[in-house]
Each structure stands twice: as C-alpha cells, then as structure tokens.
C-alpha cells in the first residue's frame, strides 16, 4: 500500500509542477500538451515495466491516474466553458498514461511505429493543431469558417478620417481586432506584419489592425504603439464599441475576414487564416 501511495503522491506532485507550463510566459498550453504527454508516457512506462505482475501494474495505473482525475475533473466540470481552451493540455495527462500502457504491452515493431506516430502527433499539436482547438474554444468552429452578412459600418483612421465599409468592397479584408491591454494581441502582431508584408503588392487583400479604444487610452495611443514597435500595417479605430457587437467580437485578438461582397467568411485566430486566404484569392 505504501508503494502505491508513493506513486499517487508522485503523480500529484508531478501534475502540480507541470501546471505552470500552461502560462504563456512558460510556453502556453500547446507546449504544455506535448511535455505532459511525454512526461506521463515515460512515467507510466517506467512504473509498469518495474511492476512484477499484472495486478501490480493495474494498481500502479490507478495510483497514477487518480490524482489527475481528482484535480482536473472537478475543475473542468464546474467551469467547463471557462476552461475549455485548457482541456486538451489537461487531458494530455491521460493520453500520456494510455501511451505508456500501450508501450508496456506492445511488440517491438509496434513500439517503434507508435513512437514515430506519438512524436509526429505531438509536434503537429504543438505547432498548429492546438490553434484549431483554440479556435473552437473561443469562436465556436475549428476552422473559423462562417458565412454571415454584415450591415454597413465605418472605421476611423489614425488621422481621424472616417472610412466606410463601401470603400472596402471588392477586396478580401482582414481585420485584426485588438486593444492596448491585450498582451496576446501584441504577441500576434508579428504574424500580422508578415502577412501584410507578404501580400502588400496584392490588390485583392487588405490587412488592418482595428483598435478598440479603452477609456484609459490617450488620443492617438494605438497608432503610436504600433509605429514605435516598427510595424507597417495600417491601424484603424473602432468608432464605438457597438462595432464589436456587430462583428461578434467577444475576445481579443479576433481576426475577421470579409469577402469582396462584404460577408464575414472567417472569425478566429490569425494562426489559421493561411488556408482560407489561399482558397479565396490568388497570391501571385
């Protein structure tokens, strides 16, 4: 009994130590998913290989799994929507345990194939797969694809000039909604700059960073921040906060793509816009 209590305690401490990896400063949930998967796979495999018989292995699996379930099941059950984004990185403890179990019982050939699959899948989720889940958690669809009409609207330039939506017709328009308190927005700006630079000579697509002013913002602050950071994409201001309701922007950053007829065809993260843009326009 002491042995399995020690395993359970080790699993609990390991889980607690891995939780901070979900913080953006330490890598965020995509990185956490892969690390947790790998750590719990190795942890489980090591303990099961050391177990003398099937009954001992079963008890060890229970001791590894129980602390994870006690920590995360109540959290995600009571605050499901609030913790939806973190769900895969929490579930990574369980997928890692399952991977360790499989490796324990699999033949040598299957072990080699599984390790390759495990590595590729973890790499894909870390680099791009998790962004599809994030899109689902924040915007309701994995791909961000929507088809919604939008009534006429207007935006304001840094110089105070009003731009009507009619002037954008005939183009694919990418609107990156942000505010000055959004740290994630600033982390995503290099991607917006890359797209703007790559397609600046393409007359079919226009990119704008749409600032939603905060009451504490000084006049012209948004444009100055972008200029001081060396970005060249144009900045527009939401004339009023009703614009975010019009576009159904509930969190920041949110990227909206309008087609030439002024219908919303994408709502989500900038990480996932490459595919819809390639499908909708010729970037030659």
From TrEMBL:
Domain of life: Bacteria
InterPro entries: AhpC/TSA, Thioredoxin-like_sf, Thioredoxin_domain, Thioredoxin_ResA/DsbE_sf
Alphabetically ordered keywords of this record: Membrane, Transmembrane, Transmembrane helix
Family matches, as CDD domains: TlpA_like_family (cd02966)
Short name of one Pfam family: AhpC-TSA
Transmembrane residue ranges: 31-48, 60-78, 84-105, 112-133
Domain Thioredoxin: 144-284
Official protein name in the record: TlpA family protein disulfide reductase
Organism: Fibrella forsythiae
